[in-house]
Design goal:
Number of strands of chain A: 16
Strand order of the largest sheet of chain A: 13-10-12-11-15-16-14
CATH topology of the largest domain in chain A: Alpha-Beta Plaits
Oligomer: homodimer
Radius of gyration of chain A: 24 Å
Largest interface: A-B, 88 and 88 residues
CATH class of the largest domain in chain A: Alpha Beta
Chain lengths: 547, 547
């Protein structure tokens, strides 16, 4: 299955491109041309990410029971009230037929996708309207019952599942599109809409969502906003802080804050919605979102390139930015270890081989001829200057998906490699891979694999370390070293995943005490009883000085 | 002085373009071709906007004394302490030689650019460092002295000058660039850097500022951030909420909040800096800014087009967005009244005539051939479908500036037309001009001119009404009608200017009570004594229910 020919100049693969540009020298074409992965994809780009056991054949070996978070991490339950029969009856009245208490039904919502944390909630509520969310929270607030807001439960830092017996407040049934305006490109929808469904809806009308991520098939837009999700399109369309125009939020006491405007610009007072973007459900429950959507690009191309060093990866990025300009829509990188893992565990095949680094460069534009021209010029430059040793290009949607899956499914491949220690680091782009090499040297044989990949264009490294099983010894070798290293280089210890439950005690490495103190004051003001997603995002005073 | 020929196809003017595309029919070419304005420009694009009297010959007739804000608007001074000799001595120690008390020197900083509000501050402090700002505020906080933070004093809603005797805290001497990283495009600078100077600095390195506005020659980046300035590039590069990566802010009590990170992504806790963006100096004083800057486009083109109806203006916009895609960098409109005013008061000449509406469409891209091609296709389509009746195109920097000045200097022209009532409204783009027509019909002969222009692509209308002199009768005919109209169409009563002093009591038209209440709680938390820019942005409890 070869890659289709690009229109006007860009050939079906690297070899043809080389022929076209007619440059002497350079690396010989890969034998067999630029073949796309031959193995069938279990979860192609756009499909739901496998969640928990039973949803994926490959996940079968991971059926071990997950240890409860409380004992595992030594957390003490705060003095929230325990659920009573009277409470259950009240909730059944508020959301009739949508108060789930069956233990088996609850199980997958008590454990995170990585199977690293597990709560023991006895109740999940599935409201359909903002009014229901408001009534539920008002009741919880009055009765001092803790609440865990939950979207698609695809988070990677333990923010989306209960730590103890918090009531799970699911947005799963809040999945209505409220409006879409084709003139302005503004979509208004309930918080429980699945990202991929929204994108499909928009594509039919010539638009796309401004964000895209591997978990798109499961994640909810409300959860995306609550975690300020980054993803693959941030380089081009910017962060949710710019694209989210309005939010409707229910506060801890049940009051509804309506900031659901659909205006590109509004400078009337403080921008309250920003506080809820990235607050991980600790300040309020997002019930509806207004978001600015870009037009669907008429032409998309994807180049998958091999580089012989990280210095060449960096120069490939700066060259692509200079030469592709406004059509550059993604610039991702991964090291050869990542490729080995997706090949071994997911049976995907890498169309290139023999490079220590791989770069994915996507262009999205409004004119396929112009875009092919720009990409062609860039590739010729990258090849003749020796930045790129090998490469292939895809232009039709299916082949693009196939290539993207090599990058998007790394997270999944890692879960099959054993126990995973995940780090999501922002760094000055020049330092991005130093941390991986440093960690690899530091851990030596005690780690199974130390891999680095991520959003090169955004300075965002996903550092992952795998081992056969969980080990305190290994963890102590990694932490706080990884955080100290990041702080020393003025990076962020969480670029896009958030802090959730697992990273909150490390906030000090990226934020000064004055900022943390102010965050705690905001939390105390908006949620004085602390019922919303407790044990998450912010360290408590006693936890605040752990290092 | 004709417009230079565009490379590859786009001619020097409309006539040539029509010849090139060779379409029969359509509007005959303007006699004399597409001539650029012949009159010399007093303040060309990029020069400082004339500020107050004496800086501009044309401003001479406006030398009348401005009434003090307190009596004019019936505001009562809050019980802040009055400045004592002991205070003056203390400030002279904190910022030696930079505590201005001379009445004549202070005069221009007590009055706004529109000459609509005037305070009576007896002291302006000009700190050079964050530490000095911190010491000054700590002193003011302890002594209960009110403070008016001031950047370039170019605001249009009376937010940047004192209402009574607040101490003016000027950022004029905080004008150092701290760092610029060419790999990431991230600029870090002090708050008092002038926008245009920053842009010039960046252009030398192949980058530009992500915002641009008429006041660029005077306004400070700190003030831009404090008011969440929009401007001419927002359509392309997004709002400051996305491009500002970090801020350093001094809080009311003098404590320094260091959120001056230079990372594209950082999800460690709540994004505190967002609260200060657009807070108009009421929550803290911004002392330094970290901002993501786009690459300088290699090719810029500007088309100035005449349309026979607002419906055609709208269709021209949607067509340009569809056909120019990623290279569209601005889409502005103005009505013929605006053009009459810049011609009459500033002696600029309109290269087109006879159209009730004009549209400015700017493209910025990385390949001049491709861009000219896209623009050509768009113009042909716009012409043959009858959307556009007349037009001219500029491609070199000087001609582009000349055309841009027709749009950028409307604000200035208005100040020469008499007393100006200014409204900065966000609306669904389809409703944008209805308000102007409605207002024109409503006011009839009681207004001199009712004009509409603005950022079409952002749904942002600048509605301006002029009269020979100030009249309560006229004001009552405009307000609250204009705000009610805006609220009825779910618009915002301040798209980009902020609320400042003059619009704060109308916040209810765009924000629900719950949101205003929450804003007041944030203000009370961060500035419990209310010393920072008092009488601005938020209504006090008694002022809150004025309508």
């Amino acid at each position: 299955m070869g890659l289709a020919a690009l229109p006007r100049g860009l050939g079906g693969g690297w070899a043809r491109l080389r022929g076209l540009t007619g440059r002497p020298g350079g690396t010989p074409a890969r034998p067999g041309g630029a073949a796309a992965p031959a193995a069938p994809l279990l979860w192609p780009r756009g499909a739901a990410r496998p969640r928990g056991e039973g949803t994926s054949p490959a996940a079968a070996p991971r059926r071990r029971e997950v240890t409860l978070t409380g004992p595992r991490y030594g957390v003490r339950r705060r003095p929230f009230r325990a659920l009573s029969g009277r409470d259950l009856a009240a909730f059944e009245r508020l959301v009739p037929g949508r108060a789930v208490t069956d233990a088996e039904q609850l199980a997958p919502f008590n454990v995170d996708w990585l199977r690293s944390v597990r709560g023991c909630s006895k109740l999940m509520l599935k409201p359909q309207t903002t009014a229901e969310v408001s009534q539920v929270l008002r009741y919880c607030y009055e009765r001092n019952l803790a609440v865990n807001p939950q979207g698609g439960n695809t988070g990677l830092v333990g923010g989306s599942v209960p730590v103890f017996d918090e009531i799970i407040l699911s947005t799963a049934l809040m999945n209505k599109i409220i409006s879409f305006d084709k003139v302005s490109g503004i979509l208004v929808c309930q918080a429980g809409c699945i990202l991929e469904k929204l994108n499909e809806y928009l594509e039919d009308q010539g638009f796309i969502m401004p964000l895209d991520l591997g978990a798109k098939g499961s994640c909810h837009i409300g959860g995306n906003v609550a975690t300020n999700a980054g993803g693959l399109r941030l380089l081009r369309y910017g962060s949710l802080r710019g694209t989210v125009l309005g939010l409707e939020v229910v506060l801890a006491d049940g009051s509804v804050l309506d900031c659901l405007t659909s205006l590109r610009k509004d400078n009337t007072g403080y921008d309250l919605k920003q506080l809820f973007i990235g607050s991980e459900g600790t300040l309020g429950v997002i019930t509806a979102v207004s978001i600015l959507c870009p037009q669907k690009p008429k032409a998309v191309n994807l180049a998958f390139l091999g580089c012989q060093s990280f210095a060449k990866v960096l120069e490939t990025f700066t060259t692509s930015r200079a030469m592709l300009g406004e059509i550059l829509s993604a610039c991702e990188f991964m090291d050869e270890k990542c490729m080995e893992l997706v090949e071994r565990h997911l049976k995907l095949s890498n169309p290139l081989t023999g490079s220590p680094f791989y770069v994915l460069i996507e262009t999205s534009g409004s004119d396929s001829t112009h875009d092919a021209d720009k990409l062609n010029n860039f590739l010729e430059q990258a090849m003749t200057s020796g930045l790129v040793a090998d490469g292939t290009v895809a232009t039709d949607a299916k082949k693009i998906k196939t290539l993207w899956s090599l990058r998007e499914r790394i997270t999944e491949a890692l879960t099959h490699d054993g126990c995973v220690y995940k780090y999501d680091i922002s760094l000055p782009v020049g330092k991005l891979y130093d941390l991986v090499m440093d960690m690899r040297a530091r851990l030596g044989q005690s780690a199974k694999n130390v891999v680095g990949y991520g959003h090169l264009g955004d300075g965002n490294l996903h550092l992952n370390i795998t081992a056969e099983s969980y080990s305190h010894f290994l963890l102590d070798a990694i932490e706080p070293y990884v955080y100290e290293w990041t702080a020393r280089h003025k990076g962020s210890i969480s670029a896009e995943h958030g802090l959730g439950f697992k990273k909150k005690q490390y906030i000090h490495y990226s934020k000064p005490n004055e900022a943390i103190f102010l965050m705690q004051r905001f939390k105390a003001m908006l949620d004085p009883k602390g019922i919303l997603n407790p044990y998450k995002t912010l360290p408590t005073s006693s936890e605040g000085n752990m290092h």
